[in-house]
Specification:
Helix 1 (about 5-25) packs antiparallel against helix 2 (about 30-75). The mean pLDDT is about 95. The protein contains two helices and no strands. It has about 80 residues and is an all-alpha fold. It is rod-shaped.
């Protein structure tokens, strides 16, 4: 995943977080039917957010592994005197 894709995912996640906050401030549903629609909409947002967070976590884990490999190779290089 390149940097632009990561930025787009982060921006999308921020937008989803905002939408979830808006859901929290909305008037509580009056009927079970309204509540079911509200819950389903909220779950969709939460599920998408969780998917984005998992993708970004995987990308960070891969990036950390690459950085670790580079650091270990640098430590094993003979020291110049």
């Amino acid at each position: 995943m390149d940097k632009v894709e990561k930025i787009e995912l982060i921006q999308r996640s921020l937008g989803l977080r905002h939408k979830l906050k808006v859901h929290e401030t909305m008037k509580q549903p009056d009927t079970h039917e309204e509540l079911s629609f509200t819950l389903l909409a909220k779950w969709e947002l939460e599920d998408e957010l969780r998917a984005i967070e998992e993708l970004l976590a995987e990308a960070r884990k891969e990036n950390t592994a690459v950085k670790k490999t580079v650091l270990l190779k640098e430590r094993k290089k003979p020291q110049k005197k």
